[in-house]
Amino acid sequence: MSEKAVATILKDMSEVLVRTKDGLDVKDEAALRGRIDGLVAEAVFGDDEAKAAARWVVWEAAQALGIRPASIQDLYLARGRGSLDRAFTVPAMNLRMLAYDSARAVFRAAHALEAGALIFEIARSEIGYTDQRPAEYATAVLAAAIKEGVRGPVFIQGDHFQVSAKKYAVGGQAELKAIRDLIVEALAAGFYNIDIDTSTLVDLSKPTLAEQQALNYGLCADLTRFIREREPKGLAVSVGGEIGEVGQKNSTPEDLDAFMDGYAAKIGASAGISKISVQTGTSHGGVVLPDGTLAKVAIDFDVLRVLSENARKKYGMGGAVQHGASTLPEAAFHKFVEAGACEVHLATAFQTLIMDHEATPEALRAEVNEWLKANVADERKPADTEAQFLYKVRKKAIGPFKRRFWSLPEDGRAAIGASLENQFLFLFEQLAIAGTARHVEKYIRTSEIHQPLPGGGIKKTKGESVDGLAD
What we know:
The protein has helices at residues 2-12, 29-45, 48-64, 73-81, 99-113, 124-129, 134-147, 165-189, 209-228, 253-267, 301-315, 334-338, 348-356, 362-375, 386-393, 402-406, 410-430, 437-443, and strands at residues 17-19, 24-26, 67-70, 90-94, 119-123, 152-162, 193-197, 238-242, 275-278, 320-322, 343-346, 449-450, 460-461, 464-465. It is of the alpha/beta class. The protein folds into two domains: 66-356 and 408-447, Aldolase class I (TIM Barrel, Alpha-Beta Barrel), CATH 3.20.20.70; 362-397, no CATH class. The strands form three sheets. Strands 4-5-6-7-8-9-10-11 form an eight-stranded parallel barrel, surrounded by six helices. A three-stranded antiparallel β-sheet has the order 12-13-14. A two-stranded antiparallel sheet has the order 1-2. The chain starts with a helix and ends in a 6-residue tail after the last strand.
């Protein structure tokens, strides 16, 4: 049983950790930081019992050190009230590859800049092709925080918990059940920020904006209520909605009004969303040219500015959220702050850095490419060059090659981590989150939340039970 696996870990680490009534105490933090690499490896690559045990130990050790998964809701609502003394744009980073090493690089960059307003996230689709369930992803982030000596709130987010329009068309209830099941799993893992994406169901063939957005705002409200009924007591999950599917028609202020008017009527007295994702001209992964390079993106910052201002002033939200931005030119990132965007989502550039890094052996890259040609050839469009095809589908190799990348020599992973850290430093400075640790400290409160021992039990917030969140 997994409980025995926990006992085995604690016996082996008896000089470092001690069992308490609710969780763990850390006796020797320096020694724990020295042992955490092995724990996170077990949490990712061990057998089922070893994974569950290692994840529990990492979670409880993080709780003991004051490293707490948290909701960014109150910071965004403060922004909506105009209570913040300056503008900044929160980076939400999808760490598809080397999640532990990448998160360590994020924390190092954040520490150097005294930055606290940042989010770690993973999308529904990424969970599949990167082979990272929510509990594994959260463990990698928390272990990285322990390794880097972090304290305080850690924001972990479910990105694009998206309803597939095709699946909904043939089995709506089954598709919604899949989203609800994922929400429950994510909440149990410490994802206290969740972006609901039902924008795939916007029907532009309808005659009015309200009718176009009706299914979108109705299901978004239903799923918001589902989250509210299951969030930990005393903690309001930050929920995001979306009015425009990324890569499709640009959003308008009228789209926002149609969505929010309908959503408000549906959500009633329940706490609603704290931000709204919009489309302004980007696409996930960028547009790939025949030579494999990326086309320049014509993002409409004026649209983003108007939508962010309306989201704050009319609806009290933190602002608008921009997706698909990591492949933009470096000169574009400061413009998100100028446009008042509350959050920007970044993913593909980090994946590209790792895959193309000089520390990644050329033989491994070649093996990845051959695997893609053999296993996802059906995704190649007739007009695609080989360079276009390989760039667009290389993310599908992340899960199958996860162990290979995690097993790169230590000096190679350190070099990749240093390059990632430099990239995060640049982004954080451009997005003006330096010094935001004080904003997080002012507005964000966390609770000590204990996980049940593997194999059963109810998760507890310190001093009280929380229903519905048992594993």
